[in-house]
Each structure stands twice: as C-alpha cells, then as structure tokens.
Specification:
- Helix 4 (97-103) runs antiparallel to helix 10 (210-220).
- The chain is α/β, with parallel strands linked by helices.
- 46% of the residues lie in helices and 13% in strands.
- It has two domains: 10-133, Rossmann fold (3-Layer(aba) Sandwich); 145-220, Winged helix-like DNA-binding domain superfamily/Winged helix DNA-binding domain (Arc Repressor Mutant, subunit A).
- It is globular, with a radius of gyration of 18 Å.
- It contains ten helices and six strands.
- The longest helix is centred in the C-terminal third of the chain and has 15 residues, at 191-205.
C-alpha cells in the first residue's frame, strides 16, 4: 500500500550528500506548511536501508548521489515500502532513463530554479499519489526535442508504438504534471476524451500507469532526443 498524506503533518526524509544543497533543501522543506518533521541523513546506503523499517511520507533524493547499484537498490526498497520518492536532477542530462523506469520514483524536479513553491507543489502531488515533473525540467526536455512532431500530419512515435499527434499532445501535457481535468481545459475537450487518449497512450507504450508512460516516453524519444 502507498502512504497516505498525514493530517497531523508530513514526515520527510532527505538523501542529499552535498552539505550545502542538503541544508538548503532542508530549510525550504521546514518552511512549508504541513511539515511535521524532516530527517536528514548522513548519506550512506546502510542508513537508507534502515529507513525501510520506518515510514516517511516523502523521500527527496539527489539523483547524482544514486550512481551505485547498492544505492539504487536501497531506493527501490523504499519505493517498495510505499514511500513516495522525489528525485532532484541536474537537468535532462541528469536523467538515467533506463534506471528511472524501474526506480519507482513518483516525481522529478530540476535543481535549476528550485524554490519553496516548487517543492511544495512536488511534495503535495507525490504524497497524494500523483506523478510530478517540475515545469522547468519539462520545458528543458521539450526544448531538446527538435522539430515539433505535432507540426506533422503523420502519426509519430517509437518503433512499435505509433502515437497520433493528439495522443502525443496529451502525453506532453501529462509529462508537465497536468491532471486530466487540466489537460481537458487546455485542449478544450471533454475529460472523458482525455481519459480515452491517456488510455490509448498507456496501451501503445505498454505501461500500467502515467508515471511509467512518461519515463518510457523519455526513453523512447517522445519528449527528448
């Protein structure tokens, strides 16, 4: 079972090796409403594994600090316990997409332009079971995509997963963290229509949920090249 937002306040853990970054993020988190506690680790795989016996509402980790198999296995263990993991990445080049597809992380935030409001949105979404990609990261991903496939009349997608221009449009909005209702408003179509398009995308990408669909889209070049 996944964690549920705690009405008494959220318990947040940090896995950030860089001392300056860790103190900065800890200060931002403590400044947010609805935070009950912040646990900042002396970074180490053994310590992370001890967290599997605890239950944090959200775990914020620097992707740069998860380069070893042991560290990544430890993160998977936290996700397997239902903890919501939010990864801080250094732009699109900081995304090790094959691993992220299996990591279980619920969200990704770019270090660039990071501020309390963005962290608040990210923590709120992931603890509510939603997938989150910061707008800065989404823009940087889309900015690398080259010519816009939506400008073409031909369906576009990776081998074996041909998406229509409309399905790709919905996928890109989902990758920006928009809900079905928000996508509906932006595209001026019914929410039922959005659900149908999202269902088509999940089926074509062979993904069970929106989270893996976005990660698979990154891997297959739908959002970046």
């Amino acid at each position: 079972m996944g964690t549920q937002p705690n009405s008494a306040g959220l318990h947040v853990a940090l896995i950030i090796q860089n001392t300056i970054h860790r103190y900065g993020i800890e200060g931002m988190i403590r400044s947010l409403d609805g935070i009950s506690s912040v646990h900042s680790a002396n970074f180490g795989v053994d310590e992370i594994r001890t967290w599997e016996r605890r239950q944090f509402d959200a775990v914020l980790a620097s992707a740069d600090d998860l380069a070893t198999d042991d560290a990544r296995d430890a993160i998977r263990g936290l996700c397997g316990r239902g903890m919501r993991v939010l990864l801080l990445v250094d732009g699109p080049d900081g995304l090790d997409v094959p691993w992220l597809a299996q990591s279980g992380a619920q969200g990704f935030v770019d270090w660039a332009g990071l501020e309390p409001r963005i962290l608040a949105d990210a923590v709120t979404d992931v603890t509510a079971g939603k997938f989150y990609v910061s707008a800065t990261l989404a823009r940087r991903l889309l900015g690398r995509a080259g010519p816009n496939p939506l400008d073409s009349a031909q369906p576009w997608g990776p081998a074996g997963a041909t998406l229509t221009p409309r399905e790709l449009q919905v996928l890109r909005l989902v990758a920006q963290g928009l809900s079905n209702k928000q996508v509906s408003r932006q595209l001026q179509i019914s929410e039922h229509g959005v659900k149908r398009l999202v269902g088509n995308v999940l089926a074509k990408l062979n993904c069970p949920n929106r989270t893996l669909a976005v990660v698979r889209a990154m891997e297959d070049g739908l959002l970046a090249v």
